[in-house]
Amino acid sequence: MAVTASLPNARVLIADDEESQRNGLASMIRSWGFGADTAADGQEALEKLLAEPISVLITDLKMPRMDGFELLRRLPSENIQVPVIVLTAFGNIETAVSTMHELGAFWFLEKPIQASVLRVLLERAMTQARLAEEAKRLQRQLSQSGTMGQMTGGSAGMRQIFSLVEQVAPSKAAVLITGESGTGKELVARALHSLSPRANGPFMALNCAAMPESLIESELFGHEKGAFTGAVERRAGCFELAQHGTLLLDEIGDMPLNTQAKLLRVLEDSRVRRLGARAETLVDVRVLASTNKNLAEAIRKNQFREDLFYRLNVFELHLPPLRERVEDVPLLARTLLEELNRKHGTQVTEVAPEAMDLLCQHRWPGNVRELRNALERAVILAGEGTVLSRHLPPAVVPASARETPAEASDDFLVLRAGTTIDDAERALVRRTLIMTKGNKTRAAEVLGISLKTLFNKLKGYDGAERVG
Fold first, then answer.
1. Which residue, of 320, 340, 372, is where some domain finishes?
2. What percent helix, strand, coil does the chain show, rounded to 5?
3. What percent of the chain has pLDDT over 70?
C-alpha cells in the first residue's frame, strides 16, 4: 500500500471500551502493515497521544471516564493534531456527522465495521497526516535556515514567497508564477504541489517554449492512433498523465494562440479530447503556469489571450531576481556547495571571504541558475577545502581582481613562446593533475575531456618519454 511506504512508522491508536472490538481492529490494522495500539477509554487514549507520535486516532464516542466527545474537545487544547475516525453505532449517523464538523473529526465509520471501508479511510487519513507533517517540516526549515524544499532564501522577498506558497498550496486555485529565467519558478511549482492535497499524485511539467507548434497540442491533450502523420499509437497527453495531480505549463507566454483557445476550454470544463478522438475525457488536474514574459504587454500586442490570462492568474507569485536579494547569496552558496559536493564527490567546505564578496557584487543576469554554474566550476577546480577567487569564472571576477602570472600560484601554467602544441598540451594535463592531487576523474572534468581520453593521453605521454 502506497501510504505505508510514505509513512513507514505510521501508528494507529484505537480507543474503544469493548476489548474484543479494539483488539480485533488492532490485529486487522497490523496485518495491513501499520503499527497499532489500543486504549480502553478517552483518558487512556489522551495519555498515549501525549506520550508518543500517533498518525491516526480511531475512537468510539461512548466510553467510561472520558468519552469520545470530550477526547476530541481536549485535542486542540493539548496541541495534538491528528486525523480522527469516529466509530458510531447504527442509527447515530446524525450525531457522528455533527461530531465530525463541530469537533474536527476526520470521518465516521458505522458499526459493524467493514474492513475495506476502514482501509480506504485509513489511507485518506494517513495522506492527511503526511501532508501535515510535510508542512511542519518545511515550516521548520524556513524558520531555521531560510529554506522551503529546494528553495532557499532569508531575504524579505523570499520569506514572503514562502508564506504565500504555504497559504495557496492547499487550495485548488490556479497560480501564475512570474520572474526572470533562472529564478526558480519550477521549484515554486513543485513546492505548491508537495504541500497540496494532491502531493501523492503526479507532477507534470511541459515547457511551452521548447515545444514545436505542431506537437504542443498532442503533448497537452494526447492523440489517437492515425490522428496525424507519425501517430503510430494512441498516446495520453499531459492532462491525462497528471490526473489527480499537478500540471505546470512552463513559459506559458510562448504558447501559440490557437492552443491557448483550446487550453482555455479545458480549464473551463475540465474535459480534454485527444487529437483524432470523438469522446472527451474528464480530468481532475490543478494547473500552474509560469513565464518570464510580461503577459500584460503580450495581451496588448495580441500575442496572449486576455481571458486565458485571467483564468490562470487567480493567484500570482512573482520571484525577485537574485540581484534584488543579494543577502541570499551566502545562504544559497552554502546550500549549493552541499548539493555539488554530492554530485562530484568533492569536499569543498566553504567560500573564502574575498570570493564571497565577488559573488555578492556580481549582477547575476542568469540568476540562481548562473550562480549554480559558477559554483559548480569552482567546486571542480577547488576539489576540497575552500573556494578561492581564482576558482570563480572570469565573468564573476573583475579584471582588477584577477591574478597575473607573476603573482600566480602553482595553479597557473606559463608557456614560453615557441612551445609546440603537443608540449603545451602535455604540460597542461600534468599541471591539472597536480592541481587535482592526482584525481584523474576530476582532472578530466576540468580539462573538458572524457576519462578514457585522459588515460589515452597519459599513456601516450609515458610512451614518448620512454622512447626519448
1. 320
2. 50, 15, 35
3. 84
